[in-house]
Write a structure and sequence with these properties.
Length: about 425
């Protein structure tokens, strides 16, 4: 196996054995920096994910006048400025490839009195932003952007008035939308509420509360309500391992015969652990042990042994709990007995890439059959992956999914544009290699 700047090649064969950790959770790492910046005092973050996306968040907050140190590769010290301490940036804020940075910062900047401009890479500039700018404009924010404030670059003019507190009924189950509105709600004239159709990841609710925000959760968590201008205080945050990164290894060890892998310190927040339910449903051999609560987030060690999987149908309320894991679940489905159907997942089309189209296109290059549907995929099981050359389209999760498919291919699999893996899982190739024998 060889990872250069652009290419990852996977030679099939062997099994996966041993134990490892995975890098810190991406969603939690972003939030630790953002909330730390808005709090008074110092926030210490341990096991921070030093992936490109989270480094973009650090870069943006430094440009907003926040002093952020990295005393070690995964240790971050954020010297918070308080809710009203951010400064007008001297330049455009570049979020790189990070949708979470873009959407959550838009919520924060909507409540500031100064002017700012947000942009990002080609993928970010294609992704829909109206889902956050519409409700924020309803709250009184002054935002302009391409296609009627739907596409970056976005210019946020700033307001001297507090924003208007609203009750927003979100049409999508999106933690980025929910979080952007709750963060704007910190700068509103009353209680801001967001209701979503299905529960999305709740890291914002958990972590903002621990910083001191007055946040209530109603309707089984579907509605979150926040009071404005709380005093937020710096925290010590231990970031759990990212279950979305662990997912690649959980699937790899399930499908490669003779494997047994233990992953330590993995976040198993119930709004994120749909992958465990689906793998169990498919017949995987999973043991979740040593469950504990770390900085308000449930964490466990997970051991997985290879098993014969069977196809399943994935739809409805579980989708937001595994949205980022669907590409690697599709790979697992290739090796299962029977067909797997993924429905209700149209959101996959507006991720870093159109993950339905891109995954189907690239998996076909490896010699398998995958049927694309408007909101998902139909994946026949018991397929033989041939191997070949594929392209990540600059999407980290597509690159890693194709790499795992390559473990069971007849020939070598070469993934182009594999540098994107650093967005969420720096060291992926080395970690995978360390488990192979
Ligand atoms: C994220 C929310 C999800 C997820 C993304 C991270 C977050 O996006 O896909 O990788 O940190 O809030 P949506 O909120 O758009 O579903």
């Amino acid at each position: 196996m060889h990872e250069s700047h652009q290419i990852l090649s996977i030679t099939p064969g062997g099994s996966l054995r041993g134990e490892t950790e995975v890098p810190g959770d991406k969603s939690i790492s972003h939030r630790a920096v953002m909330f730390g910046a808005l709090a008074k005092g110092t926030t210490r973050v341990h096991r921070f994910l030093p992936g490109q996306d989270c480094l973009s968040t650090i870069d943006c907050f430094r440009k907003l006048g926040v002093s952020i140190e990295m005393p070690g590769p995964t240790e971050v010290l954020v010297h918070g400025k308080g809710l009203e301490g951010l400064q007008e940036p001297a330049d455009v804020l570049d979020v790189g490839n990070s949708g979470t940075t873009m959407r959550l910062i838009t919520g924060i900047l909507s409540g500031q009195s100064f002017f700012s401009v947000l942009t990002g890479d080609g993928s970010i500039r294609r992704r829909p932003m109206a889902r956050v700018t519409e409700p924020l404009i309803e709250m009184g924010a002054s935002i302009r952007g391409r296609e009627g404030a739907n596409k970056a670059p976005l210019a946020i003019y700033g307001t001297e008035q507090p924003l208007k507190a609203i009750h927003y009924q979100s049409p999508v189950a999106s933690a980025q939308v929910k979080s952007a509105i709750l963060l704007a709600g910190l700068f509103a004239d009353g209680k801001t509420r967001v209701t979503e159709p299905l529960l999305s990841r709740d890291h914002t609710e958990r972590m903002l509360s621990s910083f001191g925000a007055k946040l209530n959760r109603l309707d089984r968590g579907l509605t979150a309500e926040i009071e404005s201008f709380p005093s937020l205080h710096g925290q010590e945050i231990e970031v759990p391992g990212d279950i979305s990164s662990a997912a690649f290894l959980l699937v790899a060890a399930s499908i490669v015969p003779g494997s047994e892998v233990t992953l330590r310190n993995i976040g198993i927040n119930p709004t994120r652990d749909g992958i465990l339910d689906v793998l169990r449903e498919m017949g995987a051999n999973l043991h979740v042990e040593n469950e504990r609560l770390v900085a308000g987030e449930p964490v466990a060690d997970i051991t997985v042994q290879s098993a014969s999987l069977k196809g399943t149908t994935i739809e409805g309320a579980i989708i937001p709990r595994l949205i980022d894991e669907l590409p690697i679940i599709a790979v697992a489905a290739l090796f299962a007995e029977g067909t797997t159907i993924i429905k209700d997942a149209a959101e996959l089309r507006v991720k870093e890439t159109d993950r339905i189209a891109v995954l189907a296109e690239e998996l076909r290059k490896l010699g398998v059959t995958v049927e694309e549907t408007p909101d998902g995929m139909i994946i026949p099981g018991n397929q033989q992956v041939k191997g070949g050359t594929v392209d990540s389209h600059g999407d980290h999760r597509i690159a890693m999914s194709l790499a795992i498919a390559g473990l069971l291919a007849a020939d070598e699999t070469v993934i182009r544009d594999a540098a994107s893996i650093d967005v969420s899982f720096p060291g992926f190739a080395a970690t995978l290699q360390s488990l192979r024998n």
